[in-house]
Design brief:
The chain is an all-alpha fold. Helices cover about 40% and strands about 0% of the residues.
């Protein structure tokens, strides 16, 4: 982890991009709402590392399921 005392590196935040077709889909929006502001940075890093490492990689779907279980969603 790099130190960033001047805050030059942007935060580890996600940007949720939704297609115009889903932007007003109440069922879809209710499904994703619990995720907003609920995923701790360390948990997201761990899930990302499960997918993006040299050995013993897992699929993005498996990492998402792990994250879902870890967060109790």
């Amino acid at each position: 982890m790099l130190a960033d005392p001047k805050g030059a590196i942007p935060g580890y935040d996600a940007i949720l991009m939704v297609s115009p077709r889903r932007a007003h889909d109440d069922r879809f929006l209710r499904a994703i709402k619990p995720l907003v502001g609920h995923i701790p940075v360390e948990a997201m890093r761990e899930a990302n590392y499960m997918v993006d490492r040299d050995t013993d990689k897992t699929s993005p779907e498996a990492a998402a399921r792990w994250l879902e279980k870890k967060l109790g969603l």
